[in-house]
Design brief:
Blueprint (H helix, E strand, L loop, with lengths): L41 E3 L2 H32 L3 H28 L4 H5 L2 E5 L8 H22 L3 H26 L7 H6 L1 E6 L2
Antiparallel strand pairs: 1-3, 2-3
Helix pairs in contact: 1-2, 2-4, 4-5
Amino acid sequence: MTDPAGGPPPTPQGSDNWQAPPPPAPGGFQPAPPAPGPAPGVVYADTVTRVIAYIIDAIIFFIVAVFIVGILILAIFTGGGIVALIGTVVLAAISIGGSAVYFIYTWTRMRASLGQRALGLETVNAADGATLTQEQAIRRWAFLFGPTALGAALGYAPGSLGILGSLVGLLAFVYELYLLYTVTQSPKRQGYHDVQAGTVVVKRVG
């Protein structure tokens, strides 16, 4: 039997030579498959758990800072001149320095922030699982929170600096989304900030 168009006869679906068409390529966002854990009883922390830990840290930091910031804001609005200027500088220092001290201290002294500890996570050296050095912790904080802290600090400033702070804050939000994306695309769940600092976040399961 020949094809009416003159070509070879079509292969019937029941034939042994028939093959189903390949499945369509997956569309949309696809996270990378996770790599095996670096040691027995240790796995690389998943993205969702890391985000939840960050939210816990943000709540803790907010509760601690709100009293100090509230007092300073009251001083800025009730005072004037040099009082307002000093208050603005102190607010900026709290936004940047407070976050840095909190995370750098907990990463190097407890191997995890309080939010991470609550969920059984640790931030460690990617090469051997050792506790982070201070230099590593500073680099990780700078790449993870630096742009956001800068935007928050500039946001307290009056006039054009405040507008600049809003722009920096918007760009920092986009940057944070990029960091989150890089975490999902790494088998070891290393975000861009982890790569720059040589760190990895793990979870003990055993």
